[in-house]
Amino acid sequence: MKGIEYYQKVIKIDQQDRVVWYIMGLAYYNLGNYLKAIEHYEKAIGVDPQYIDAWFNMGVTFYDMGNHHKAINCYEKVVKIDPQDDGAWHFMGLAYGKLGNYQKAIECYEKAVGINPQNSKAWYDMGKEYGNLEKYQKAIEYYEKAVEINPEYSDAFYNLGFTYFQLANYQKAVENYEKAVAITPKDNDAWHNMGLAYGKLGNYQKALECFKEKVNILPQDSESWYFLGVGYACLGNYQKELECYKKAVEINPKNKNAWYALGLVFSSLKKFQEAIKFLNMALAIDPQFKDAITTLEEIKQKMEQNMD
Known about the structure:
The longest helix has 18 residues. Helix content is 80%, strand content 0%. With 308 residues, the protein is mainly alpha-helical. The protein contains 18 helices and no strands.
């Protein structure tokens, strides 16, 4: 605030100093006071309507406020003044993407990379929009361009893995998730998805190792323990499977999938009363849980048959 107070004194001396208005806008933005930031950017633009930095940062502020239409208006002002501003084209694409206008977003990214072919983030974001359009081969093409420019682009490798998974190319998915975690070892989502891909390949031991990594990163995450339990189930280690499901519901008693999984395990052990208890816990969370309803009915039928 001391910096702002200083500039407030300066601006009283010269109300036409666009740079001071702009700097005050930046200061308010950094404090999270977006409305004040916009007010001061507008003051800077009032002094100089061609002030690109003020237009651009006002666009960033509107974007962060979730007002994507106004953000686009600001970026359009920038590219009208300087059509070669690749950053403005890129950020305009981000705003269109937030509005769900993926094709328009792609057009903006194409402008950005046409001006600056080394803008790896714009290539990456273009890949994301093609993914949103379910044009996965195109998405892969642009993600690969991003990692060609920036070989340490962990998010791009992650999205390559995700896209290959969507195409059921699980081996390529694994390869790219491995690259993602090599760069960002604490990327729990990459470990999780790599575990799913290994599962699809039938390599349950590797899947289990991935789920263990996720648990190590997020030891208080109920879903992580649930999937670790699934990993043990695939290897037939039912004792460990049970321990994981119990840990999952201990952390989050609302984890219906873990309660359901406990019900399945006890049903397979023919401990039907315990199974019913756990299935009812799942149904108390989601009364429309079809799998739990079906399993519960099957158990009751078995119990009736045993009585006969």
